[in-house]
Design goal:
This protein is α+β, with helices and mostly antiparallel strands. The protein has five domains: about 90 residues, GIY-YIG endonuclease; about 140 residues, no CATH class; about 110 residues, 2-Layer Sandwich (Nucleotidyltransferase, domain 5), CATH 3.30.420.10; about 150 residues, Nucleotidyltransferase, domain 5, CATH 3.30.420; about 50 residues, 5' to 3' exonuclease, C-terminal subdomain (DNA polymerase, domain 1). Helices cover about 45% and strands about 20% of the residues. Strands 13, 14, 15, 16, 17, 18 and 19 form a seven-stranded mixed β-sheet that branches. Strand 1 and strand 2 form a beta hairpin. The two termini are about 65 Å apart.
């Protein structure tokens, strides 16, 4: 593998210590960050000829410089690698995508009297966040349930209340502990918040113990109303925990996770069990994963995620991750307890991972639908702006021509309504005015016939008419429209550079490959082309079928029609014996023999 003298010099001077390496391009931008137990061996391996990994091959071609940071241990290198990737977001590293669009549950510890809230923004380091959730309704339900269980403050009233101010409706309905009234102190309220946090963490044992202790204290001090409130909370919690359906070893803390690669993104879903109870499902989206494997994503996730999260005793996944022993040692040291990363070992493990897989597939399908419609909306808005339309285009049509040296020429018209194919309004045209190749002229005919039909039927013109072709085809389409005294928006798309022509006399419009507006134009162009080709093949097939039977001596048009209607296929007629042919009503022995002899001589 060829590389520069500068790289050779860097490689020869690398230390054999553990550390982190930063690979850079000619503009000093960081392309990739990795860690190594031996920097010299690891970095040099990228430049060996035997390296056939596609991602590595693309990366190495761009490297012009390498920076190394030596660390005391491989564990330090592991942590530094994760922190630097998060900071610099290199192009070739897997990155956890910003998932702020997902809902979270926030405990507003930044407030004097914290609340449990639904939010889509992770904005304060003081607050505690749970999530993300894909199901906003589920997140809202958990918020409502938590507030109801622990009688927490949900209003924005200042505490204490102003003179003459009444507590909110929730207090009057006994849904709030009434901290604003002074019935309970701030310390007692904060105890409730702390218990609610344990509940959201899934740590039920200390929750129940704390509540039991409070209820006993209130009862012993004759505060029966407060004791009754705590009793009700405990009763509701018992009902919730009894509905837990997923069987895992009692009292154990475990995380199960799986990943699905989808294009340049990856979805990772984690099921979190604490004290044997399923706390919830968490979804993480990674970007820049087109050249990565599932095990790479799982490894990157585990290293980054557990730097700021509670570490369970077991992490179960299907992937055999690189550096498993090293990462286990790091997590064990960080958690001050034995941590194992393992494959499923029991039927229960397998069942939970299967359940996660179903979840991932459903989430992926939901995201695809959501992204599809989001892209359409963005594309239609872009086309509205690009072509100065008064409204978002509702109906877009596209014309295409298909012919073979001018013979059997057909035009097709595909229709998109609100950015989606409307196949009930696709149309086909047999070209009448040309028997030699003339795409611009055929476009003129098809557009003219369509506009005439719409005007005759008093129907509206499409918001955008697309022509498959360049400025010449566009000019003829515009001429067809102007002949009727109408001026619809007509554009053409030239396939070579995917350029758009809005005015044949002006320079073409070149949109980015990722443009959602261009994607809509390309999709309708491809649909029109497919529809035209299909129609053209059908006509040619019928013509070829007819022409072969035309050459059979001794049979006429009526006999040919009878044979095709009976057998439904020329191939079946070719392979039929004389006796089979004679069975056809209206076909005598002479005709049957003539057909058989023609195809078998």
């Amino acid at each position: 593998m060829h590389h520069s003298e500068k790289i050779d010099h860097i490689l020869s001077n690398l230390p054999s210590d553990p550390g982190v390496y930063l690979m850079k391009d000619g503009g000093d931008a960081i392309l990739y960050i990795g860690k190594a137990s031996n920097l010299k061996k690891r970095v040099s391996s990228y430049f060996q000829k035997k390296n056939t990994d596609a991602k590595t091959e693309v990366l190495v071609k761009k490297i012009t410089d390498i920076e190394c940071i030596v660390t005391d241990s491989e564990i330090e290198a592991l942590i530094l690698e994760s922190n630097l990737v998060r900071k610099h977001k290199p192009k070739f590293n897997i990155r956890l995508k910003d998932d702020k669009r997902f809902p979270y549950i926030a405990v507003s510890l930044s407030e004097e009297y914290p609340r449990v809230l639904f939010t889509r923004k992770v904005s304060s380091k003081q607050n505690r966040y749970f999530g993300p959730y894909t199901d906003a309704r589920a997140a809202r339900n958990i918020v409502s349930m938590t507030n109801a269980l622990f009688k927490l403050k949900t209003c924005k009233k200042d505490i204490p209340l102003n003179d003459g101010e009444r507590p909110c409706l929730n207090y009057q309905m006994k849904r709030c502990s009434g901290v604003c009234t002074g019935i309970i102190s701030r310390e007692e309220y904060l105890d409730l918040v702390n218990t609610a946090v344990h509940f959201l963490e899934g740590d039920m044992e200390p929750v129940m113990n704390a509540l039991q202790g409070k209820m006993k204290t209130y009862a012993e001090t004759f505060q029966y109303e407060k004791a009754a409130q705590i009793r009700d909370i405990m009763f509701d919690l018992q009902k919730i925990t009894e509905t837990q359906k997923v069987a895992v070893p009692i009292g154990q803390d475990m995380d199960y996770l799986d990943v699905l690669l989808q294009g340049n993104e990856a979805l990772l879903v984690l099921f979190e069990f604490r004290k044997g109870l399923l706390l919830g499902r968490k979804i993480h989206v990674f970007e820049n994963t087109g050249l990565s494997e599932a095990r790479d994503i799982v490894r990157a996730f585990i290293v980054e995620y557990y730097q700021g999260k509670e570490i369970p005793g077991r992490i179960i996944c299907d992937q055999a991750i690189e550096d498993r022993d090293l990462i286990q040692s790091y997590l064990t040291e960080k958690a001050s307890k034995k941590v194992r990363i393992s494959k499923p070992a029991t039927g229960e493990d397998r069942g939970i991972l299967d359940m996660i897989r179903k979840n991932i597939e459903q989430i992926a399908a939901d995201r695809q639908v959501s992204q599809f419609y989001r892209s359409i909306d963005e594309g239609l808005l872009e086309l509205k702006s690009l072509f100065n339309l008064k409204e978002i285009p509702e109906e877009i049509v596209c014309f295409d021509i298909s012919n073979l040296q001018g013979t059997d020429a057909v035009a097709s018209m595909a229709t998109f309504r609100n950015g989606i194919p409307d196949k009930s309004n696709y149309r086909r045209f047999r070209i009448r005015g040309y028997d030699s190749p003339n795409d611009p002229g055929m476009i003129h005919e098809a557009v003219a016939r369509r506009i005439q039909h719409l005007l005759n039927e008093d129907l509206p013109l499409p918001d955008i008419m697309v022509i498959d072709g360049g400025p010449t085809q566009l000019t003829r389409a515009l001429e067809a429209a102007h002949a009727f005294g109408v001026t619809p928006v007509i554009i053409s798309i030239a396939k070579r550079f995917e350029e758009l022509y809005y005015d044949a006399k002006m320079s073409p419009i070149r949109l980015e490959e990722t443009s959602p507006g261009l994607k809509i134009i390309q999709q309708i162009r491809d649909e029109a082309h497919r529809f035209a080709i299909t129609y053209h093949k059908t006509l040619r097939g019928k013509k070829l079928t007819g022409s072969q039977l035309d050459n059979v001596p001794g049979i006429g048009v009526k006999t040919r029609k009878i044979l095709l209607e009976y057998f439904q296929s020329l191939d079946i007629i070719k392979n039929a014996g004389i006796e089979e042919l004679k069975k056809v009503p209206g076909i005598g022995e002479a005709a049957a023999k003539a057909v058989y002899d023609f195809f078998h001589d």
